[in-house]
Every structure is written in structure tokens, then in C-alpha cells.
Amino acid sequence: MTKACVDNIKVLIIPKIKDPRGNLAVIEKDIVPFKIKRVYYLFDIPSGSYRGGHAHKELSQFVIALSGSFEVVLKDREKTKRVILNSPTKGLLITPGIWRELENFSSGAVCLVVASDIYKEEDYIRDFKEFVDYNK
Fold first, then answer.
1. pLDDT of 2 strictly over 90
2. Could you confirm whether 54 is annotated as catalytic?
3. Which own/partner pairs from 76-80 qualify as long-range (CB within 8 Å, at least 24 positions apart)?
4. Of 25, 37, 105, 127, which cross-links 109 as Cys (Cβ 3.0–4.6 Å)?
């Protein structure tokens, strides 16, 4: 298993088709490096709330701010990286073994998550100390 590292986390550009009637962003083919098995979105997030607070053992995610903005805090065993998402044409590719927290949601923010697998509770690491031990 390759050591999970926040330095390997990337923001990917989502192709946009410009049109005077409104733009269209497309996620298909090789935009995400995994087969999409689950899509969900977060919305109506109360001011001061945060989401996430876990890592995945095998799941990869592609996180997009469809509307508004929010901050993604990423952690490995040694480093922390913060990424602000505020464009529907940029997505954050989060690989397995990275702790993630979503915070500082703007009013009206909508967070879309495209995932490599269906929901499986056994894939989650929800305790940070367990996460650190898991990544030794």
C-alpha cells in the first residue's frame, strides 16, 4: 500500500462548455480516475457546522463546490493541507487514507461528492487516533 500523503491530493479542472444561455460542466470519461459508484450532495449546512471528520480505507472521492464555497482540511500522519473550493469547474480528488473535514461553508453552499464505491461503514475511520495508528 502506498503511503497516503496530503501532498498528493490534487484539484482537477472540470471541462466547461460555454454558452450564452448558461455554462455546462461535464464529468465523464477520464475526469476522475475511478468508476463512479455513488454520488451525493450536502446542502442547507447551518452556519458554523462542519462535515466529514473521517478517513476512508479504500474509497476515493471527488469533491466539488457546485454553489458557494467551503474549505476542505486534509490530514495525513504528519501534515495538514487546506483547500478552498469555490468553483463548479474545480474538483478535489481525495485518495484513500486521508483524513478530511469540511468547514467554513458559505450561505447557500452545495457540496457534490462523487465516490468510487457505495456506502460501506467498514471503510470508514471515524476516530483520529485510530486514523494515525492505521497509517503507521
1. no
2. yes
3. 76/3, 76/4, 76/5, 76/6, 76/135, 77/132, 77/135, 77/136, 79/5, 79/6, 79/7, 80/6
4. 105
